[in-house]
Amino acid sequence: MVTSDRRSEARPQSPSRRRARRPALWLNLSILLLGLAILLVADQHRRRLDAQFAGIVKTQVSSPYQLARIRTDLASMELTRASLDRELRERLAMTEEFQAAEFYLAIDTSKRRLRLHFGPEIVREADVVIGDPLVVKADGKSWQFVPLKGALTVIGKAVDEPWEVPAWAYAMRNAPIPAAPVTVTGGLGKYVILLPNGYVIHSPPSAGSPLAGAKPASFMVAEEQMRAIWPRITDATRVYIY
């Protein structure tokens, strides 16, 4: 009988055939728990951000402009002095762990500015035209457009979307309402960000649209600015209007 000596013979020139050891179970569990903890921190950060914007909105609605402005500045000072270092550490930790970006939009209705934020940083800023709040009446029907404030989430977006022109778009211009529906490509604008309850952030309407500017109580931003922020907007993007 011939026996093999491959297991006992020393072969210094040959690479080891042993497999690399798998990570210990405790190490895998530690990484999993660390990931869950970071996700919880991110969720808490979003909740605090929602609460801060809700407080600003409540203050500005219930107080005269100058008093609301003072309270907003004081709130910003308090955040800067007491919480900014902690907030930055949390955001940097999440970025380092996941290499992921969390963008959100903020619309300052008093300054008429739209800002795209990445965490605490402003990465893009643009003028915004706010449509007038209106009550439009025609043919026994009524359409009411009320100002929008608060924290909400994008529900969709569209590019060069055909727009079936609603009756109110004609009525607000005192124009006759067509008997059959009329569809206009880009009637609301080339870029349209959809918000709940019919509100939108849109670029200027196309030339063939009966809408000459911002949709009532909604928000219009220059087309080149919308094009710049477009890739960063998803169905999960938060929008804060104050």
Task: Describe the structure in your own words.
This protein is α+β, with helices and mostly antiparallel strands. The chain has 2 domains: 76 residues; 113 residues, L,D-transpeptidase catalytic domain-like. Helix content is 35%, strand content 24%. It contains 4 helices and 14 strands. The strands form 4 sheets. The chain has a 5-stranded mixed beta sheet with strand order 3-2-1-14-7, sandwiched between helices. It has a 5-stranded mixed beta sheet with strand order 4-13-12-11-8. A hairpin with a 5-residue loop joins strand 11 and strand 12. Helix 1 runs antiparallel to helix 2. The termini are far apart.
Element layout with pairings:
Layout: H1 25-62, H2 65-98, E1 103-108, E2 113-118, E3 121-127, E4 129-130, E5 134-138, E6 141-145, E7 150-153, E8 156-159, E9 162-164, H3 167-171, E10 183-185, E11 191-194, E12 200-202, E13 219-220, H4 223-229, E14 238-241
Parallel strand pairs: 1-14, 12-13
Antiparallel strand pairs: 1-2, 2-3, 4-13, 5-6, 7-14, 8-11, 9-10, 11-12
Helix pairs in contact: 1-2
